[in-house]
Each structure stands twice: as structure tokens, then as C-alpha cells.
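At this stage, I wrote out one protein's amino acid sequence and its C-alpha cells, and that material follows here:
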Amino acid sequence: MPVELYVPQIPDNLNIRFVENRIVINRPAQEVYDWVTTWSNLPKWLPMALGTEVRRGTEGVPAEMGDVLLETIQPELNEKPKLYTVVARVPGKLWTVVGRDVLDDGSLAPAMHAIATFTTFDLGDGTTLFCRLFERLVPDTEPPGPHPVEDPARIQPGLELIKAHLEGTAG
């Protein structure tokens, strides 16, 4: 049964935009949570991520509160690298990171740029509903309309990759 992609009720001309994607994965919630919150897995599924570098925390394990990651973005998106910090964590259930742009001189933008929240819901039959909510603050200089990171149709294949990795069907 196909899952409808999230359709935001918020106009594209506001200073914040949202995208939500979800998928059911045939794995327990804790296993899904552990996999998606492990920084090194990000480039394996998120279409925008080119690479990651753990700045605070431990590579290859679920990120803890306060851990920090530098994410490089696919060049065609013309986006600055992002420095993400874990700001909320409920093991097995919820994980939130806040991102700031890394400017050309290596300093951080004065304000946050993005918030990503991952939630896992145990459906009671060994499967998990995984949701990714991404919120992005839009600079005044950006033209109206959705940015590629706000397009649920571009993100959903990434969730399909999470499912494939966890269910053992990834190529």
C-alpha cells in the first residue's frame, strides 16, 4: 500500500519550510533508531549528503546528546556544509539535530539553519514507522518556492534506502 507524501499546509513564501517523510520498516524500533542515528550511515541514504565527519562523539555508533557532525552537501545543490548538534534524544524513539551553515572562512553562521527530527514508532508486530521531519529557515535572499531539501519526493527514495539497508535488500 503506497504511503502519501507529506503535503505541508504552510505556504512556500514563509521564512520556515517543512518536509515530512515516513516509511514502515520490517525491523524493531530500536534497530531502526540505532541505524538512522549513526552519523556514518547518513550518506548511505540521505540524497543531499555527500559525506560526514564526526566532530564530537564516536564514529559508527548512535549519536549522543551534544554530539556534533559536519555534513558536506552534494555540490549541485550549491549549499554550504552544515554543522549539526544533537539537541534532543529519547533512545529508541526520538532524535533531533540543529544545523548551522559553515561559512567560507570556516566560521559558523550566527543562527541555526535547519532542524531534523527522527522518530520511530513500534507498530507492535516487529515493524516500525520511521518519520523524518525537516525544518529549514529560509534566508531573505532566497527566491520563493521549495528548495530540493524540502521536496518530499526527493527524500522518500532515501527512506527506501534505509528500509533496504535494515531489511537486508540493499544492493
User: Anything to note?
Assistant: The helical segments are 29-36, 42-45, 152-167.
